[in-house]
Amino acid sequence: MAAIKHTHHDVNFDQPGKDSYELRKAGAEQMLVASSKRWMLINENSETLADAKLTPLIHKLDHKNLDLILVEGFKHEPIPRIEIYRSELGKPPLHHKDGYIIAVATPNSEDIAPQIPRLDLNNLDEIINFISAKITNI
To answer: Residues 6 or more apart from 98 whose CB is under 8 A from it?
Structure first.
């Protein structure tokens, strides 16, 4: 399994004073940091993008051992999604306006559109079974 997370923030994975940071600031478009436990590749976009595009990022993953890619964010992409909805946050639900939402996971008995499955956010097995059934039918 792999995961891709979208953010609107200017993420910085290294710190001023570290070699990786200084090399990147000196012009390295790619910076790979490695240890015995993990490695991370930092890639500088050659141009400022309006927003990150999902497809090119998916192609960067090593697909040899992947059976599932979970994606967080990327609301502008036409992919099936599960909405995580918490009414206590005071934000309106998205499932009424987003045709790509295939289920809503919520921690309580929220009023969900009847044609959209409601998943218990606190029941991980239920969510896993739902996703498994969906990818089996692809």
So the answer is: 75, 81, 83
